Amino acid sequence: MTKDGTLRADASTTFRTLYPSVEPYSSERLPVSGGHEIYIEQSGNPDGLPAVFVHGGPGGGTSPIQRRFFNPDKYRIILFDQRGCGRSRPHASLENNTSADLIEDMEAIRRHLDIDKWQLFGGSWGSTLSLLYAEKYPERVHSLILRGIFLMRQQELNWFYQGGTRSVFPEAWDRFAGMVPHEEQDDLIGAYYKRLTDPAHERDRLAFAKEWSLWEGSTVTLVPDEEQRAHSVDPVFALAFARIEAHYFINKGFLESDDQILRDAKKLDGIPTTIIQGRYDAICPPVSAWELACEMPWAKLKIVPVAGHSAFEPAIQHELICATDAA
Fold first, then answer.
1. pLDDT digits (tens, 9 = 90+) for 199-251
2. Which one from 281, 288, 310, 318 is the annotated catalytic residue?
3. pTM of the model
4. Which CATH superfamily, name and number, covers 7-154+254-326?
């Protein structure tokens, strides 16, 4: 580590680190459709460039550390918890909870905060939702900073829940798959969804929620992260995360078609876009980022050589902060 707090990777590379902690100057819950209330907070410069952090999952929620990807003097930093998770209400609810609902929630937040255009900053499922919003409301998007691209395609779900990531993390897979009978292991999304939603399995629901969440928490970084694993099995977090993810994944993200996001990428022409992707991302492999960049030739694609999926791996974090600084 250098004197200014940055991390040095080698003789030629100095990694940027997160901005100092900043507290919100505003927080509230916004009533939206279907009986939901969305938690929103703002920090940084009220007159700065509006940037909205679009969290992953779906069902992941936000945390204070996510404010620190942005220069608080430059940015009006907006965090919100999507339906059913974090500090939004009702907790872990699947009712009226679809991609279309989340897109309209974002638009409701933009109008409520009287923002003309904003930067969308999203990773993993956050990249999915950012792209879906931008494809519907391109005139409201200042720029896109996307990480760990997930296009909500069947091949991506198959990779993570059937035949891909299990080859890299066999010990974590054995625990995850072993929770259900062998005859159901060819459809783990369906098997877990049943146990996470069916009233007949309510007694065991939390145990399955923790295992669903732990599978992702065990595969998110190149180097095992015990703090991440511990957070993933927190009961409040795990219940929302597992139920909402399984709900979205069994319904194919509620998209019109498997290729919807790539098909509509041309609508984003002219929007400054940066795509940051870990080379060894075991959750969202680089092929999706590559295919997206091919459909968006104006975008800047950065494949980070030594990184997995997490936004907080040093090289990924560095690229994200460089991107917000440059916007």
1. 999 999 999 999 999 999 999 999 988 998 999 999 999 999 999 999 999 99
2. 281
3. 0.95
4. Alpha/Beta hydrolase fold, catalytic domain (3.40.50.1820)
227, with CB counted inside 10 A (0-12, 13-18, 19+), is exposed
As to burial, measured by CB atoms within 10 angstroms (0-12 exposed, 13-18 middle, 19+ buried), residue 280 is middle
Distance CA 320, CA 311 (A): 8
CB 18 within 8 A of CB 321: yes
Q: Are 109 and 79 in contact (CB under 8 A)?
A: no
Q: Are 283 and 216 in contact (CB under 8 A)?
A: yes
pLDDT score at 185: 96
Cα–Cα dist 192/195, whole Å? 5
Q: Which residue among 43, 88, 99, 124 is the active-site one?
A: 124
For 91-123, write each residue's pLDDT tens digit: 999 999 999 999 999 999 999 999 999 999 999
- AA letter at 277: Q
- Residues (pLDDT < 70) of the chain are 1-13
Indicate if 130 belongs to the active site. no
With tokens 């091949």, the residue in question is 155
Q: What is the rounded average pLDDT for all residues in the chain?
A: 95
Contacts 24+ apart (CB under 8 A), 157-164: 157/189, 157/249, 159/285, 160/283, 160/284, 161/188, 161/189, 161/249, 162/186, 162/188, 164/282, 164/285
CB 118 within 8 A of CB 51: yes
* Catalytic (active site) residue 281: yes
In sequence order, the 6+-apart residues with CB closer than 8 A to the CB of 114 are: none
Q: CA 140 from chain center: how many Å?
A: 20
| Domains of the chain by residue range | 7-154+254-326, 155-252
Q: Is 269 a catalytic residue?
A: no
Angle at 93 between CA 87 and CA 99, to 5 degrees: 90
Residue 224's pLDDT is what? 87
Alpha helices in 178-286 (DSSP H): 188-197, 205-217, 226-232, 235-250, 260-263
